[in-house]
UniProtKB/TrEMBL annotation:
Superkingdom to which the source organism belongs: Bacteria
Modifications after synthesis and translation: Binds 1 heme c group covalently per subunit.
Signal peptide annotation: 1-23
Keyword Transcription among UniProt keywords: no
InterPro entries, alphabetized: Cyt_c-like_dom (IPR009056), Cyt_c-like_dom_sf (IPR036909), Cyt_c_ID (IPR002324)
MF terms (GO), sorted A to Z: electron transfer activity; heme binding; iron ion binding
Originating gene: nirM_1
Keyword field: Electron transport, Heme, Iron, Metal-binding, Signal, Transport
Sequence ranges assigned to domain Cytochrome c in this UniProt record: 24-107
Protein's recorded name: Cytochrome c-551
Amino acid sequence: MRKIQLMTSMLVAGVVYAGGAMAADADGGALLKKNNCLACHAIDKKVVGPSYKDVAAKYRGQADAEAQLIAKVTKGGKGAWGSMPMPPQTAKADEVKTMVQYILSQK
């Protein structure tokens, strides 16, 4: 009986965790749309700027990737992906963090 209770608890915890991750993904995607990021970027193809999958691949494994991208989004940048500059974005700090986490989660 204890094994069943333990397995049930683990299953419920897994579903809750996965649901939270899916909600964060949905929030990140919605924020990218709300802040007009999709005018220059797409998940899987280059538009004006790089695809989010390419960005995630470039920064994968870097401990400071999130901080670097938050700085690039808020301050703008030039030269990392070509000559086209990215203007600074005016989204709220918590929204930028959620968007960057979503971008870095792309595989």
